[in-house]
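[job 4471] stage=fold_predict status=RUNNING
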Amino acid sequence: STPIMVECIARGRLVGSGWREYQKTGTICGINLPDGMVQGDEIPGGPIFTPSTKAEEGHDENISFEQACEMVGRETAQKIKDSTLEIFAEAMKIASERGVILFDTKFEFGFLDGEIVLIDELLTPDSSRYSLAEDFKPGEPVVNLDKQYLRDWLDSSGWDHSPPAPDLPEEVVTNTRARYLEAYRRITGSSL
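[job 4471] inference complete, writing structure tokens
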């Protein structure tokens, strides 16, 4: 497949980089949100599409839908937006039925034989933010079942994000693994 160079992020709640952007600007990727929202609040009107660049090096950068249209064409941008929101809405519903909150996720699409297809991972704890519903209260710290635990540890370790990454203590590896396995167990109903 040939990757479409826009990362497709769906957000159902205000967390992560979306929360940080909202705190600074009151918007996410050019989408105005009401004043007074707190971290973890549901996005009014349902999930939103917040694309970003697919950086070869460094960090991806949030962009507006119009910028995505300029990059990949309006028809392609609309198709990946619609697919992103449709898949995310179904995944949120399934997670909710199992007592899990799916806050946001990232999808990547590409072209294969002229058709738009999903590429890369799908709804894993590496590409999505999850929490158990019983552990979550808007405005309070989130107990994540995803990579955020590891990210937080790396940030608190003093690492400047330049290679090489620090060695991980066994406790961090064990706790990260346990979070991923709990997300899997709760969402699928099976254990590994």
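[job 4471] summary: The mean pLDDT is 93.
[job 4471] exit 0
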